[in-house]
């Protein structure tokens, strides 16, 4: 019997990179460094310092919500995004980036309107969708591009 290839999963709490067998993602894996849950069922807020590690070191697709606290549509979409996170994890890492606090990331990824969803795989952006969506819209969009 062969064991599944382990996946690299970045901890949403301490940013340590963990190796988890793909068949065990749904078993509530915890971080080997901080013992925190690797999947929380809610979006992880990332700063510029943490962002690169999460998109480049994770073997999972990473869904990013680029948003700002003053943005009405962003606030409207936030509960839908949180519901989508519950449904997408552990197959997709779900994160949020406040473009007001992390303007360098907004510039680096040429974010021209918010909210903007971006899907990354292997450190590269593979899809982008500007504008607010509800839970079913987010899930359908991710499924089309995963």
Automatic annotation (TrEMBL):
Any single GO CC term annotated in Swiss-Prot or TrEMBL for this entry? cytosol
Determine if Electron transport is one of this entry's keywords: yes
Q: Which UniProt keywords apply?
A: Disulfide bond, Electron transport, Metal-binding, Redox-active center, Transport
Give the record's GO biological process terms: cell redox homeostasis
**Which Pfam families did the record assign?**
Thioredoxin, Zn_ribbon_Thio2
Gene3D superfamilies linked to this entry: Glutaredoxin, Zn-finger domain of Sec23/24
Domain Thioredoxin positions: 14-146
Which superkingdom heads the taxonomic lineage of this protein's source?
A: Bacteria
One GO molecular function term of this record is:
metal ion binding
Report the family membership: Belongs to the thioredoxin family.
Q: What is this protein called?
A: Thioredoxin
């Amino acid at each position: 019997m062969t064991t599944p290839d382990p996946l690299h999963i970045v901890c949403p709490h301490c940013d340590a990179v963990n190796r988890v067998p793909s068949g065990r993602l749904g078993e509530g894996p915890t971080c080997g460094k901080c013992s925190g849950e690797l999947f929380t069922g809610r979006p992880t807020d990332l700063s510029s310092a943490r962002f690169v590690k999460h998109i480049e070191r994770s073997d999972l697709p990473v869904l990013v919500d680029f948003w700002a606290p003053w943005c009405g549509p962003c606030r409207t979409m936030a509960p839908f995004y949180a519901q989508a996170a519950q449904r997408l994890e552990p197959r997709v890492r779900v994160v949020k980036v406040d473009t007001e606090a992390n303007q360098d990331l907004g510039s680096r990824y040429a974010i021209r309107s918010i909210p903007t969803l971006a899907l990354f795989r292997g450190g590269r952006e593979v899809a982008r969708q500007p504008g607010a969506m509800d839970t079913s819209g987010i899930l359908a969009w991710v499924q089309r591009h995963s």
